[in-house]
Structures are given as C-alpha cells and as structure tokens.
Design a protein that fits this description.
By secondary structure, the protein is an alpha/beta fold. It has twelve helices and eight strands. Strands 3-4-5-6-7-8 form a six-stranded parallel sheet. A two-stranded antiparallel sheet has the order 1-2. It is globular and about 55 Å long.
Length: about 325
C-alpha cells in the first residue's frame, strides 16, 4: 500500500492566470512532495469546477445554458471546449512530468456537487431526480476511472492521489439548496445515500483519495466512512464540535489536509503563524506533537484562482516551508 507522505504540502487545485505550463511549473516547483495538476478557471467556461467535472462524464452530455451547465441530447460547443482544455492540460503535464516519479494529485468535482449544480433539461437541479442522480454517479465513476487510466499512461512513474471537491455536501444533507424557482428547497438527501454514492466514486479513484469541502459543517465522519484517505478542510472552519470525528479519522490512519494559508489578499503568514495552530490542534485532539507530520498535510485554505501569481507562488512555498518545519520538530 502506498503511504501518504509525511511532512508534505499540496494545493487545493485552482491557480491564477491562463497559462497551464507556467501553472504546472509553479506547482511542481513549490510543492515537491505532493504537486497537483492545476486548474485555471480564468480561462472561462469548461475550466470551471463544474464544467471540468462534467467533461469526464461518460454518456451524459452537457451543454452550457444561461443559468449554468445543463444536461443535453448531445455535446455542444462548450462541452467540446471543455474537452479541448483538458487535453491541453494533459499534454502540458505529460511534457513537464516526463520521468517524474512520485505522488501527483488531481481534482474532480464530486458527485453531489455535480448533482447540485448541473441542471436537468427543464432547468431544475439534477439532484431533484433520483434516477438522474444515480446515472450521474455511475457515469462519474466510469469517467474518473478512464481519466486516471489516461493519466497513468501519460505519467507512468506517478502515483495518483484523487481529490473529490464536494463544497455542496453540507447543503445537500441539510436540504438548503434552492429549486429553480427559488421559492422552495430541494429535499435533504439521507446521509447513508450520500455516503454510498461518494464511496462508489472513491472506489473508482483508487488507493489514495481526498474529499475536499470548503464549507462549514463538513461531515467528517461521513467522508471517512465513505473511504476517503484524507479530508481537506479550511482550518478556520474546524470547530470544537469536529474534534471527536477528526480524532477518530487520524487515529484510524487518516490524514487531515489542513487549509492554513488564505487564498488571497494581504500578506502570506509566517512559517510560525502557519505551523503553531496545527501543533495546537493536534495536541488538542489528544495526539503527541510528533504525530503532526504523518497526520497533517498543509495547503492553502481554498483555491488560488483569485490571487495574484506572486501571492499564489508564495502561498504554496509557505505551506511547504511550514510542513518541513513541522516534520523537523
């Protein structure tokens, strides 16, 4: 079994700008222990979280409507652009990572976030149709498996870590997502169903997996039960109420990917400002300080798409510096 790297740092996913070669070079340069394939939402439709995730679905074509991504009878211009952008990204990765051997993270929108954001043809959230949601889960699992097979072919020395981005899971569980009319909300989905479908996609992803949730009230126990190797959270949103679930996750060998550097604006915090809260958190969970390097991977608190290139580079570097400081004691 491949082990999660101790004393590592990584990125959430998105980076500023529209130059994929530059973004890959930055990520590999600043995150030597756990680089990731960057996402560049500034390129527009098809480079966004939902469009990119919808682009790997199998036999479920989507098209871009005025209100967002919508199921379609066949793929249109926006879907073709999505595929073209992803192909360019994989070409750039193939060239840059030639001979690379190590862990490499990718990010894909999770099934519940896709079901909450993609629309049926009538304009309602796909989430409102149980059959359509089941189809999406199966399609995403198959598409992710195919996507990873292509990545392994292109970068054969890499061991891939798959991150599912699930910012909408708390709202799906709470039943707080609005319908198309805005006058009512979509019925809450049972936690057992959310867990089951997450597990389906995580199992398709392979051995090393992350569920990232940048919303408050992230269901840590559910993510762990679904089989995630790691949970990725904005550390500022972790409350005392999360401590028991987080302690169980770490005690079982799971990893916390802790978002510790703001996604943009102001100055990048110092190494001490990043490292000290993590030591406090882990000891507060009842673990010895020496557990920190193996139990915690550092990252920005969210994607860096809205930051300047200089800030993004500095933020990733600070995460790595703080992770190495924690690992050295």
């Amino acid at each position: 079994m491949t082990e999660w790297p101790a004393g590592a740092a990584t990125g959430v996913g998105s980076m500023p700008g529209d130059d994929i070669v530059e973004a890959i070079a930055t990520v590999f340069g600043e995150l030597p222990d756990l680089p990731h394939l960057p996402e560049l939402p500034a390129r527009g439709a098809g480079a966004d979280l939902v469009g990119r995730g919808a682009g790997i679905l199998v036999d479920l074509p989507v098209e871009l409507a005025v209100s967002g991504w919508r199921m379609a009878s066949k793929a249109g211009h926006a879907a073709r652009r999505t595929a073209d952008l992803l192909e360019r990204d994989l070409d750039a990765l193939t060239d840059y990572a030639d001979g690379y051997a190590g862990l490499l993270k990718i990010q894909v929108a999770g099934p519940w976030t896709l079901a909450g954001e993609i629309e049926l043809r009538n304009g309602e959230r796909l989430l409102t149709d149980h059959g359509a949601t089941a189809d999406l889960v199966a399609s995403l699992a198959e598409g992710l498996s195919d996507h990873l097979a292509e990545l392994r072919r292109r970068v054969p020395g890499a061991t891939f870590v798959t991150q599912l981005d699930e910012p909408l899971v708390p709202a799906v569980l709470a039943g707080s997502l609005r319908t198309a009319s805005g006058y009512r909300t979509v019925a809450a989905v049972e936690s057992a169903i959310v867990e089951r479908d997450l597990r389906t996609v995580l199992e398709a992803a392979g051995e090393l997996t992350v569920v990232h949730c940048c919303a408050a009230d992230a269901p840590l126990a559910l993510f762990r039960s679904a089989g995630a190797s790691a949970v990725s959270l904005d550390l500022s949103l972790v409350s005392q109420a999360d401590y028991d679930d987080l302690a169980e996750h770490i005690d079982a060998g799971g990893v916390l990917v802790a978002g510790v550097v703001p996604g943009g604006g102001g100055d990048v915090p110092s190494v001490e400002e990043v490292a000290d809260p993590l030591r406090t958190l882990v000891t507060g969970l009842g673990f010895a300080p020496e557990r920190v390097p193996a139990a915690v991977t550092l990252s920005p608190s969210c994607g860096l798409a809205g930051a300047t290139s200089a800030y993004a580079r500095a933020a990733l570097r600070r995460c790595t510096e703080a992770a190495h400081k924690l690992a050295s004691g």
